[in-house]
Give the backbone structure.
Amino acid sequence: MRVPLHLAALTLLAAIPTSAPTQETPTEKTAAADVIRRINELERSLALPQLVARLTGARDAHRDAVVARAKELMDKELLAMADDITRHPETGWKEERSVKILTDYLTAHGFDVEPGVAGLKTAFVARYRRGAPGPNLGVIVEYDALRGTSRDFHGDQHSAQGPVGLAAAVAVAEFLTSSKTPGTVTVYGTPAEELASPAAKTVMYNAGVFKGADVLIRSHSSTATQVPGPGFGSCCMNINVIHYTFSGAPAHQLQAWDGRDALMGVIELFNHIDGLRKTLRPEAKVQGIITEGGKAPNVVPDRAVAEFWIRYPDPVYLAQVTERVNDAARGAGLATGTKVRIDVDSSSRNGISVATLNDVAFAYLRMLGATKVEEAPGRPLPYEETGTVATQIPGVGVTVHSSNGGYHTFEMEADALGEVGHHGFLLDAQAMAAVLYHFATDAPYRAAVKREFDALKGLYSDYLAALRNAYPLPSVPEPAGN
């Protein structure tokens, strides 16, 4: 027999973690010390342990019914849907089958679906048709697979994010109607998360798709059950995605001096970047592949292309790293007699991590029986992976232990079909439903979320200003004569 949530909560209240802001690098913590101090003051003023205890520890038959309904939907229908999508992976912009499965289910459960929003063929918005004026509860779902060299696969378990989000959305929507509680639910289908061109959530935000959402929630696979600290951050660091296209002149390889080898330009770019690494801060990551490198070994390639993802925890030093990589590309062109075009494909930036949402979700995960629980708050982590939406609308990403394999591995895909994945997905859905229930029914809680989010948003410019003083460029003199 499952213990009611309010009884399970009584054994956990003393262990509720207190969120502490912890930016990712020592430089951030030092340079932005004043901003971090102000975040600390903000978080203390919110009395988060007491807030979490009030929401999770009280007897609440309505909440328990919503959570139980999310579990029922997962057990009876949606775990099987997640397995089905896992077994039929579709990469970004090709997720037609997965989208049809998700939108057919939403239509059958009282949602009106608008396909192809923001000009993106596999994006959609589903609005609960029986919603009433009140809080607009947003659920983000993803469904794209990873591109593999041997096969495409769900090595990040995006196959489950849709079914998990649907369980929470339907359970809460049904409650709103049955209890005549003001509010509505909107499900946002966001494609191609694993592709950088274009960043779908940013395109959707710029097109006004998220307009009117008061809160957003999503889930994601995880190798542990974690709670992020409040502040500014990104799941995979700030990223610039850049294409370097080298142009040369063709010739027979036996007379290569008659041409200019564009592939050698790309190879020199890789060599130059390797030379740069020792003078970059250790947190910087520069990762690239050659996407075009010629057509025939006996013809000097007159065109070659490389795609690089340049990452750093904050956007200020990222700009410096990016310019140095761009200079490396220009130098590679000069060294090989080729010409290079530099195209910034897309970028991902920091979002805002909100403890009033994170801590409540984490408390429910622990109460519901999450495994591999990491008690200490981690680095700030917003709920979506481009930052744009997470700087404008408060939200939470639920991350419960759902795999013993690493991210982007076949082991993580296999776990999506097994006990560890199913257990994690079930808890994701229940915790998401509980958080949405509280946001819909508890006005003081909504006010606390808004107060924290608005205050953090107001501190972000001060945080960036502090970092601009933390990365001085060295003064390099002209070479002296003999």
